[in-house]
Every structure is written in structure tokens, then in C-alpha cells.
Design brief:
- This protein has 9 helices and 14 strands.
- The longest helix has 14 residues.
- The chain is globular and about 50 Å long.
- The two termini are about 25 Å apart.
- The protein has a single domain, classed as Ribokinase (UDP-N-acetylmuramoyl-L-alanine:D-glutamate ligase, 3-Layer(aba) Sandwich), CATH 3.40.1190.
- The C terminus is likely disordered.
- The strands form 3 sheets. It has an 8-stranded mixed sheet, with helices on both faces. The chain has a 4-stranded mixed sheet with strand order 3-2-7-8.
- By secondary structure, it is an alpha/beta fold.
Length: about 325
């Protein structure tokens, strides 16, 4: 039973700021760090640290950044044999983080645009595997990867981040679990309902329509409020996040990836969905307590300690 991650690898250029610059304004950063990231790689490391046998599928360049990604993933005991080295620079994300822990991100896909579903097929997906994808590689390849994984009987997860401006027609056809934050879920709701502008619709109603229309389990991550799931069977699940004092909130960059990777890991370990969601919600919370994405991802032991009340920390943002 593996978690196979089909997705992006980016090098994160992280700037700590007092406040975000206004248009035309030049400011000085408080600090600067170069870190490995990308939603695919982040979720792979999250899954591995949470006990899954993880496989990373993606593309990097023939540059030092690309080699750094492979080395880091290998160090986390992640199978890197299906990562392709391509004639394009490794993806870059410029991440700006203010003193409140909020972030703005500017992304250049680079090699990620050359990630192909054929790489997933070479990994010999089985019905025991969990396959998770995000939206940072070519959308046509994402659809092909989901279709192939579903044809093999695997459990499929689509983390709808970043949310596309235009939804590909077949994007949701082979998805078992859709994971979306509140803004992403609203975009899907509006897409399904034909709404032309944002509506004030309860997230519970959004999840119900999404689940019924797309025939998938819909999970909405809600920051400090944890996560809410509308299951295809009609039942719903609430999973609380771990309480965190505002002054302890450092960086929300990797929280969503921590949630998604931890949830995939728990499913691969055959945990009930209720427990998997609670585990993932706490993993997302813990990732907010450190700078960066991969550097902040918790281990299974960290999450277990927090769930048992042994973590001395105190509004998480998933």
C-alpha cells in the first residue's frame, strides 16, 4: 500500500516581510531563505513522515535545484525513481510572508510543465495504492493520471490547489476525494451551479452540492475551524484543528500540503476516514508553527502527541 504523489517540485525563495509592498513600492526583507517546496513534493514528504510508503512522480531540471529536490526526497525515504530530469529549469516559487504569517506566492512552473502521466503508468499503480494530485502541473496530464489510477482501482485524491481559473471538462471524473479550502470550494460550487459571482452560501451546502454533483467525497479545509467532509453516503464529518495561540502562528505556507499528505497517508494505512481527517487537521495545524513548507511538516509522532494533548502550543490556517 503506497501513496503515489503526482505533482510539482518547486524551489521556494522565501522573503520574510514586515508588510506586503504596495504597487510600485520597494521594501527590504527581514530575512531570505531558499527552501525546497512545490505542492507535490510537500505532500510526498508529509505522507512519508506520517508513515506512508511514498512515491514521488514529477519533473525537475538538470540544475542544482533539481538535484537538491531528489536528494531531499531520497533522504525522506521516498521513491524517486520516477522523477524525470528535463531540459527546463526547476520550478521556482517566490514566497512573501508578512509578520502575521500570511503569504503571497508567485510561481513559475518550469520543469513541472513537462511532468507526464506516462510516468505514473510506469510506477505500476495497484488497487491498494492511494494516488494524490494537485494543480501545479499540466491539467491534461492530471486528468490522464487520475483516469489511469482509477482504472487500476486505486483510491484517488484531488487537492484543488491552486484553483484553476477555468475548470477542465473532465477534471473531476475520476476523483474519490476532493480536498479544497473555502475559496477553492466556493469556486467549484459556482462552477457547478452556474453562478456568475460569489454567493453567500454555507460551506455545508457547498459541500453537499459538490459531493452529489461530482460523485465524490468532498473535504473542505477551514483554517482554525479544521475540516468538514460531505461523504457520498450522505453522512458528514467535522474534524477540529489543533488550537494555536495567534502569537505562535509563524507561516501557513505548507499547512494545506501537510493536511493532504497526512490524510493520504492515513488512508493508505487503512485508518477510518473520521480518524484520518482528525489526524490530517492536526498535521495541518502543526505545520503553521515553523517557517517554510517542508521544514515545518510534522511526523506521525508529532501529530499523535498533539492529539493526545502532549503538544504545548496553542488559530491554525489549513
Amino acid at each position: 500500500m503506497r501513496v503515489i504523489i503526482f505533482g510539482s517540485m518547486n524551489t521556494d525563495l522565501c522573503y520574510q516581510l514586515d508588510a506586503f509592498p504596495r504597487a510600485g513600492e520597494t521594501i527590504s526583507a527581514l530575512s531570505f531563505n531558499i527552501l525546497n517546496g512545490g505542492k507535490g513534493a510537500n505532500q510526498a514528504i508529509s505522507a512519508a513522515r506520517c508513515g506512508a510508503k511514498a512515491v514521488m512522480i514529477g519533473a525537475v531540471g538538470h540544475d542544482e535545484y533539481g538535484q537538491s529536490h531528489i536528494n531531499t526526497l531520497h533522504h525522506e525515504n521516498i521513491d524517486t525513481s520516477h522523477i524525470q530530469r528535463v531540459d527546463a529549469p526547476t520550478g521556482i516559487a517566490n514566497i512573501y510572508i508578512d509578520k502575521h504569517g500570511q503569504n503571497n506566492i508567485v510561481l513559475n512552473a518550469g520543469a513541472n510543465a513537462l511532468c507526464r502521466a506516462a510516468q505514473l503508468k510506469q510506477s505500476e499503480v495497484t488497487a491498494e495504492d492511494v494516488v494524490i494530485v494537485q494543480m501545479e502541473v499540466a491539467h491534461g496530464e492530471i486528468i490522464a493520471a487520475l483516469q489511469h489510477a482509477k482504472a487500476q482501482g486505486a483510491t484517488t485524491i484531488l487537492n484543488l490547489a491552486p484553483v484553476p481559473k477555468i475548470f477542465p471538462e473532465d477534471l473531476f471524473d475520476h476523483v474519490d476525494y476532493l480536498i479544497a479550502n473555502e475559496l477553492e470550494a466556493l469556486a467549484v460550487y459556482n462552477y457547478i451551479s452556474g453562478a456568475q459571482q460569489r454567493e453567500v452560501v454555507p460551506y455545508t451546502a457547498q459541500a453537499k452540492l459538490i459531493s452529489e454533483s461530482l460523485q465524490c467525497h468532498c473535504i473542505i479545509t477551514r483554517g482554525a475551524q479544521g475540516a468538514y467532509a460531505q461523504m457520498m453516503q450522505g453522512n458528514t464529518i467535522n474534524a477540529d484543528a489543533m488550537p494555536i495561540n495567534a502569537q505562535d502562528l509563524i507561516d501557513t505556507t505548507g499547512a494545506g500540503d501537510s493536511f493532504s499528505g497526512a490524510f493520504a497517508a492515513a488512508l493508505s494505512l487503512q485508518q477510518p476516514v473520521e480518524l484520518a481527517l482528525k489526524f490530517a487537521a492536526y498535521a495541518g495545524s502543526l505545520a503553521c508553527l515553523k517557517l517554510g513548507a517542508q521544514t515545518a511538516l510534522p511526523t506521525a509522532a508529532d501529530v499523535t502527541d498533539a492529539l493526545q494533548g502532549n503538544q504545548t502550543v496553542h488559530t491554525a490556517s489549513i
